[in-house]
Predict the structure.
Amino acid sequence: MGYKRAMSWSTYQWLLVGHILGFVAWIGGMIATLYLLRVHAIVEGPARDVCARQERRTALIMDLGATLAMANGFILAFGTTPTAFATGGWLHVKLTVVALTIFAIHGMTRAKVGKFRRGEIKPLPRALPYVVLVGAVVSIVLGAHKELLRKKGGGAPPPAATAPQ
């Protein structure tokens, strides 16, 4: 099975930087928003208005980070021939973990920001930031150690093996 890079090494590395920065902003924004929502549920009066403004700002960071991470991630996944979807079981597991933990909690967090702003305040489960962190750690480990679930007998070599000398 042949391997052909559809992008330059420099492009690959810039996309990887964008993917990682987006992921950090996504997770950081989500954890900050979740903790602000917890504080919002216990404060009264003008502090609630301040919390609502800050929640919208940190949720925006979360949204922008998610967009950057996903856009760069999909370009990276489809940027080689054969694609990472065809050669790496690690990617299927990573995307499943991201969809079931991080992306699901992202949607719930966004919905809660809107509800809290409208005055529909109900405390969040305390475990949510920890679930996000576990999902993030699993995603990082799978992304950093692709050989853990790599299909045997072919496929694309790791990108470092194709770096220019």
Remarks:
- The radius of gyration is 19 Å.
- The helical segments are 9-40, 46-78, 84-87, 89-117, 128-144.
- Residues 46-78 form the longest helix (33 residues).
